[in-house]
Amino acid sequence: MNIAPVAASKIWSNDYMMRYTSRFAAAIISAPICAAPAIAAEIQVAAQGPVVELSVTETVEAEPDIAQITAGVTTTAPTAVEAMRMNAERMNAVVARIKALGIAERDIQTTGINLSADYEYDQQTRQQIFRGYNASNRVQVKLRDVSRTGPVLDALVAAGANDIGGPSFSIDDDTQAQAQARQAAMRKAQAQAQDYARWAGYSGVRLLQVGENVRSGPPMPMASPAIMVTGSRRERTPVQPGLVGTSVTINVTYEMTR
To answer: What is the model's pLDDT at position 76?
Structure first.
């Protein structure tokens, strides 16, 4: 696994904030420690010196072990009943093929069934002309062996699928990656807070508050993979899973201490 830190320039321009607050000693002593009512207790820690607030993101990259694709069928017919009938027939063949490839029922999920009228604009009459009905049905398929992604896509197209999406890649259990990213982010935040304190004439820092956000995987591409056909020979669909990242963003507040 590789730890990829967020660019410093981005953190500086968007995330880093330093806020100095001056308080009299008497006000600090009298500052209460508050607790929220029964549902969730929140403790506010009073700071006697200036505070620095940081937002730091660290990302751990690893090879994915899950691929998700979508496969569907779109059909057109003069009537709604016929469009749905044709669609059901072809979609049943696609689903049967998915199951024949050894993919478990729990990894197959219908994501959308649509029926809509199809109109075409006539330039001469300047009117919408009814052409029939479009019916579509799509399923999302989870592959637990990413090396099968290309062959599965090709098999589904051969079975009649004409609406393909994905793939998107992820890690089934990214707990370890989260822990590594969290540790790296905390170390970085501590070092940055120490730098701010030193520049401001203080000797150390005291942690007051920590919060985090976790994001797994890259943005999910939905572009359809190409299947090249040359004469009677069809090229296999190439799929490169690359690496996916697990990012942890921590929001921390430190008090500067003497």
So the answer is: 96
Residues 222 and 156: beta-carbon distance below 8 Å = no
> What is the residue type of 215?
R
- CB of 205 within 8 A of CB of 257? yes
In angstroms, rounded to a whole number, what is the distance separating the alpha carbons of residues 142 and 101?
12
Half-sphere exposure of 18 (CA within 13 A, CB side): 14
Question: Residue 90: phi, psi to the nearest 5?
Answer: -75, -35
Please write the tens of the pLDDT for every residue from 142-185. 999 999 999 999 999 999 999 999 999 999 999 999 999 999 99
Mean pLDDT of 188-210: 96
Dihedral in degrees, nearest 10, Cα atoms 138, 143, 149, 153: -30
Q: 129 has which bridge partners?
A: 120
The rounded distance, in Å, linking the Cα atoms of 134 and 76 is 5
Q: Does this model's pTM top 0.85?
A: no
* Domain spans, the chain: 2-63+173-220+244-257, 66-170
CA dist 196 and 80 (Å) reads: 68
The per-residue pLDDT for range 6-59, each reduced to its tens digit, is 433 232 323 333 333 333 332 333 334 344 444 444 555 667 889 999 999 999
Phi, psi of 191, rounded to the nearest 5 degrees:
-65, -40
State residue 41's pLDDT score: 47
Q: Which fold has domain 66-170?
A: Alpha-Beta Plaits (3.30.70)
Q: Where are the alpha helices (DSSP H) in the chain?
A: 8-10, 25-30, 80-100, 149-158, 175-199
